[in-house]
């Protein structure tokens, strides 16, 4: 299923990607007409992007691309990272699996043509039967011909290794706070506007070929990130400043 706010958010992200910090984006009226959505639906998506620091709303002037964020890496490029599974029994329910065109934004992330076909999977992740995350996953269609919903209800990386001969080797992942829309909250069984963690990840194989792009919403009341820091004699006074040299993020990647 393609959630309305997710569709609007993807369009707004594409608009942001094509502009510089401080540039204006189209008005609410223009965006509503172009996307054929109501103003409340558009505003919900805009509010999320304002809350996560991607857009700035100025009264009487409009909406603008926000200043670039300060990025703190958890693990340096030359430091091996591991991501052991989180506790509990993880399962997945596929809500939709369909083939579509990549489009400009997803095409750039996966290094494929905007006209190339990809498989778009929406799945709900559970831990011990309780919904924990809503995931939108994009994979180049030529890598997974004949992919079925049953293939996605187990570990996807195991499927790539064992059935497709593809070995995921590297991932770049960002994590940001956000809140849940009504549609998202219903699926995750929490109140509307509940806090959540937004994961954005591009995974590549050993040849640096992108094999997956994922956006996941994790319930803020059920999920947290723990960073382990190596603090030696030469460590700075502020341990957070050394996270790029010694941190390892823990989570579930499959």
SSE topology sketch:
Layout: H1 4-17, H2 28-35, H3 39-51, E1 55-58, E2 62-65, E3 90-101, H4 103-110, E4 117-127, E5 130-140, H5 149-152, H6 156-164, E6 168-179, H7 182-188, E7 195-205, E8 210-219, H8 243-246
Antiparallel strand pairs: 1-2, 3-4, 4-5, 5-8, 6-7, 7-8
Helix pairs in contact: 1-3
What is the general shape? globular
The number of helices is: 8
Q: What would you report as the Rg, rounded to the nearest angstrom?
A: 19 Å
Strand content: 25-35%
- Uncertain segments are 79-84, 239-252
Task: Tell how many strands the DSSP assignment holds.
Answer: 8
Overall pLDDT score: 84
Quaternary organisation of the protein chains: single chain
* SSE ordering: HHHEEEHEEHHEHEEH
Structural class assignment: alpha+beta
Biggest sheet layout = 6 strands, antiparallel
Helix content class: 25-40%
How far the N terminus sits from the C terminus, by CA atoms, comes to: 21 Å
**Which strand order spans the largest sheet, edge to edge or round the barrel?**
3-4-5-8-7-6
